[in-house]
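Suppose a colleague, Dr. K., hands you the sequence of a protein chain of 154 amino acids and asks what its three-dimensional shape might be. Before reaching for any lab equipment, you can write down a predicted structure in token form. Begin with the sequence itself:
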Amino acid sequence: MSTVRLFVFCLLTIGACKSQEKGAEAAMEPSEQNQELTLILSDNYGGSEHVDFQVIRDMKTLRQFFIQVNKTRKPGLPVPDIDFSKEMVLLHCPGKMGHVSASGLYIMDDSSEKIVLASKEGNIKQKAGNEALTMPFSLYKLPLTEKEIVFKKE
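The predicted structure, expressed as tokens, is then:
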């Protein structure tokens, strides 16, 4: 009787492990369209007061952005290590907000001449009276391209 229980337990354990592997593989496969756009860093403080979108193609410009962000931080955020001969950085600042927002960029259209990016935003509910003004920013990396990069707010 105990041998049967042990056998059933082993079968259930092996089956459970196999299903987790399949789930992890599916979760790791990004959609074909968003495969190139990778989030590097996102924070609620340090962005611009106004909506801003920049394509950063050199380390000097990236360092200048981090100098601005780190003026109000001790210790400051480290500058990400980017190989600008292979990649470029996209900076997205949705502007000053009175609520917490989970926003992100995605590739809306990728043609031979241009890449159209759009922001998707979702508000996170907070208790009334707990709204702090934030100026979030997000940094994404994208493989280096000569295509025109266009930002479209949805």
